[in-house]
Design a protein that fits this description.
This protein has 368 residues and is of the alpha/beta class. It has two domains: 3-74 and 123-160 and 348-367, 3-Layer(aba) Sandwich (Rossmann fold), CATH 3.40.50.2000; 169-346, Rossmann fold (3-Layer(aba) Sandwich). The protein has 15 helices and twelve strands. The chain has helices at residues 15-28, 54-62, 75-81, 84-95, 100-108, 126-131, 140-148, 169-179, 200-212, 228-237, 251-260, 277-284, 314-327, 329-346, 349-367; strands at residues 3-6, 33-35, 42-47, 66-69, 134-137, 154-156, 186-191, 217-222, 243-246, 263-266, 289-292, 306-308. The strands form two sheets. A six-stranded parallel beta sheet has the order 2-1-3-4-5-6, sandwiched between helices. Strands 9-8-7-10-11-12 form a six-stranded parallel beta sheet, with helices on both faces. Helix 4 (84-95) crosses helix 5. The longest helix is centred in the C-terminal third of the chain and has 19 residues, at 349-367.
């Protein structure tokens, strides 16, 4: 079976690109997988919510196959790639002529798209759902969104993780030394592409509140900002000497930084049905992760992560969980151990690649 493979090129500053390349290698252990060949028995398309996926989206419509929706909301993809008239045409296709006025409002106010919950309520999936033979998502929350948009063949395949046997203990200690963080200091970390839904400013505020109590704590923020507005906010909010900033991390650098931190902060609100690759990796390294309590994260066992309720309760719950990690490191290690065991049971690359292969085989069989 020949599989056409469509994803952002390796090395792109995109978690989807990293995921897709590692999965391609995993699938290649099973059969021939070629990047985007014209002649294939079945095509696999990786779609996310940014401009990198524009050509892949067009191909997915032109030669229907299996689509992996890394984000179950494509609203922001269209806002970033279409003109006003094109966006409104897509909006009407999804939601009907009667709702055109709302579409015009959302286009006009698109500067708020990353923080306004309205933009996350309208996934705009109808066209890709209608054209695709099957849809793959990474969690049951995303499956509910896609099914609500009319998809009939939806498969939930967990986001994969390949735990590294190297603990990076020496490199992690060296990183803390370079950053001026003592080995007895509780280090929190925020990783990945920094966007407003990751609640970075709110995490800084909770950390500052905790640090002001006299706790020996530090915060590492690693990644590039997705907007100039957020970059300016971080410059203002993140001036504390205990807050350390670094840029984009390579795969190896991320593993070392993950080993160096005591807890990962990985909030997402509003959510777009995505499973965080960063959260999966840090959990795979045995680190406690603080997540938003959402449908996207409902598949994780209760004991494998700490959860924060979005909304009014967010600030206090986040602070309380960070205080727990600081005051009771034994409990934090227990949570990290549960997380690592869960990831190794359900999220191994070979296990995930086999599930993908089964979906691809079933798709080919249904065509014959």
């Amino acid at each position: 079976m020949r599989v056409g493979y469509h994803a952002p090129p390796p090395g792109s500053h995109s978690g989807v690109a990293d995921y897709a390349e590692a999965l391609r290698i995993g699938l290649s252990r099973l059969e021939s997988v070629k990047p985007g060949p014209a002649a294939a028995d079945v095509h696999l398309y990786h779609l996310g919510n940014n401009r990198l996926h524009a050509d892949i989206y067009r191909r997915a419509l032109g030669a229907p196959g299996v689509v992996v929706l890394h984000d179950a909301v494509l609203q922001h993809f269209f806002l970033g790639t279409l003109s006003r008239d094109e966006y409104l045409a897509e909006w009407v296709y999804n939601h009907g002529e009667w709702s055109r006025k709302l579409g015009e409002e959302l286009w006009h106010e698109r500067g708020r798209a990353s923080v306004d919950p309205r933009y996350f309520r309208y996934p705009m999936l109808r066209r890709v759902v209608e054209r695709s033979r099957r849809i793959i998502v990474h969690n049951s929350g995303a499956a509910a969104i896609v099914s609500d948009q009319g998809a009939r063949n939806v498969d939930v395949i967990p986001h994969f993780c390949e735990p590294d046997e190297d603990s990076f203990t020496i490199e992690a200690a060296q990183l803390r030394d370079r950053l001026g963080i003592g080995q007895g200091v509780t280090l929190f970390g925020i990783f990945g592409y920094l966007r407003e839904p990751k609640r970075v400013v709110q995490c800084i505020q909770a950390f500052t509140r905790l640090h002001t109590l006299g706790r020996r704590t530090a915060l590492l923020i690693a990644g590039e900002c997705g907007s100039s507005d957020l970059a300016r906010l971080l410059e203002t909010e993140g001036r504390h000497s205990a807050i350390k900033r670094v840029g984009h991390l390579s795969e190896r650098e991320l593993k070392i930084a993950g080993a160096a931190v005591d807890c990962c902060l990985n909030l997402r609100y509003p959510g777009a049905g995505e499973t965080s690759g960063i959260a999966i990796r840090l959990m795979g390294q045995g680190k406690p992760v603080i997540l938003t309590d959402s449908a996207e994260n409902a598949d994780f066992p209760p004991a494998a992560a700490l959860r924060v309720t979005p909304g009014i309760a967010e600030a206090d719950e986040l602070f309380e969980h960070m205080l727990l990690v600081t005051e009771y490191p034994g409990i934090a290690r227990d949570i990290g151990r549960e997380a690592r065991n869960h990831i190794r049971r359900r999220h191994g690359l070979d296990t995930v690649a086999k599930k993908y292969w089964e979906v691809l085989c079933a798709t080919v069989s249904s065509q014959s």
